[in-house]
């Protein structure tokens, strides 16, 4: 924590006019923000401008309210606070800085999360007990299947990304044009799950035997004389095929973190190992790997959390059909397809409970590395 | 453990991250063909899926459905085999141009607003002292753990009551709320590391905490702000879940990811359109990413836990 400093008390040789001016300014700012929000909310006001211009105006108003408005609010509130006695000023001012963010976070995360937990117990059919949604969840074979799939993802995706990322980081460290080579692994990191889903659906595209295969994977299979495989329909290949998409997306993240860690291994350690006669590979396994253990845990846990919440890849490729469902996709379908909100909240809580232990490992590991929270 | 602190210790300050090759010290640049071959194999394997998409998006419908995209390499310089017709079609008839505009309209405010709020808050947590500071900050950090799925149902109901479902305001605020904990956390890590002396001398010169924030903290925090901005921009642009839940698939407001996923549902076999559509949705992140890679890498190293 950074030490706090007490600024010198400001002396506002307070003329009443100045206070009045600032009060009026404050009122004006609040009214303008209110008007801006009104414009944003009203559809009729902007529809006369045509769809395109209307949207553009809306976005500009949003930026004005969101940036200029917030700034103006901070400025006027801050100047008003300074008219208070010095002690009160110093006591209240910090809240001017933190409260707006705290308010938004409370509204969007704290209260809804509490609400979700409560509703998961209370939103049950007439006459059912508090645990109804959970009992339903754990007796639903399709949901158990989704949980099993999440477990498969949880083991394979982080491990696969870690392995590829580590291999690549270790190898690329010793070639020229390192930065260029890295870009190729790194690039998928900026591709959306939906985009990746389309890319890989195309890779996995299946045509009946005898017809030309336009998916590259089945083209390779048939080239070697095999029968084309319906990668996304065949159980259990399809879940593995989806995990590959996740590995493809996340390997770049693993590589970046691990590459930085490898470069941080002290020269003396590596040199000492080499002088003792260890080969390149042995040095890597015996010296470099143990010293980057913390970074490896970071990579694994971070990807594991992303994997537990995975939604878009599954939603766009199979939408959970053919036994590929995962919990986040099921939750979405419970909400929108079945309007089954009580059940959806129970699924959210299950997801949350699965994430927490991994996050604890993650944070504890970061602390050990000196990234204290 | 020294290695850990060297690599990870650099992270919170968001500084000293060099992208350049400094290989394992003491090792000569290996000329081993095996190393190079392995690097090449992985790099090719990682690029082929995207390359296939891009090439197919430029081929006429009959070619895409009739032959594999790799067949163009038989005569790669024959430009007549390429066409931009698929792009014309998805941008106009399939409505992706509108979705593109919607994505921009959603993403820019949803990036700028959280940064503004987070910068104020991070400064407040780092450099002012008040009752409940540790408690409030612990809550913000603790919220990094909470999957945004935990918020969806109650928020959706709240939005229903206030007619916010399907509006840009609703989705801007949602992305702001979901992005704030990480934004505050990252900016706090950076801002709290600024040297104490600069604040002391500023206060002696009569600065208020507010002027110290605007004149000192904001300019000095530019690298951290840029990192988070890129992070949030890519996150919002690529998001499907939040936009499906709060914005929906109405063409007036639907963003690119939502339209592309709809296209998969309605035209799952029309690969000439799907490939072009997917590429339209990827082009902005690719440009942002390639142009601002350094900041992005810093952001990644500083922490990548997100709702």
Label this structure with key terms.
heterodimer; A: 373 residues; mainly alpha; 2 domains; 16 helices; B: mainly alpha; MetI-like fold; 70% helix
Describe the model.
The complex is a heterodimer of chains A (373) and B (307). Chain A is mostly helical. Chain A folds into two domains: 16-122; 136-368, MetI-like fold (Orthogonal Bundle), CATH 1.10.3720. Helix content of chain A is 73%, strand content 0%. Chain A contains 16 helices and no strands. The mean pLDDT of chain A is 88. Chain B folds into two domains: 32-83, no CATH class; 96-302, MetI-like (MetI-like fold). With 307 residues, chain B is mostly helical. Chain B has helices spanning 2-13, 33-57, 61-66, 85-91, 96-127, 133-142, 149-161, 168-191, 196-204, 209-220, 222-238, 241-246, 256-266, 271-291, 293-302. Helices cover 70% and strands 0% of the residues of chain B. At the A-B interface, helix 1, helix 3, helix 4, helix 6 and helix 7 of A face helix 1, helix 2, helix 3, helix 5 and helix 6 of B.
The number of distinct helices of chain B, counting runs of at least 4 residues, comes to: 15
Total strands of chain A: the figure is: 0
**Number of distinct helices of chain A:** 16
Poorly predicted ranges of chain A: none
Query: What general form of chain A does the structure show?
Result: globular
CATH topology of the largest domain in chain B: MetI-like fold
CATH topology of the largest domain in chain A: MetI-like fold
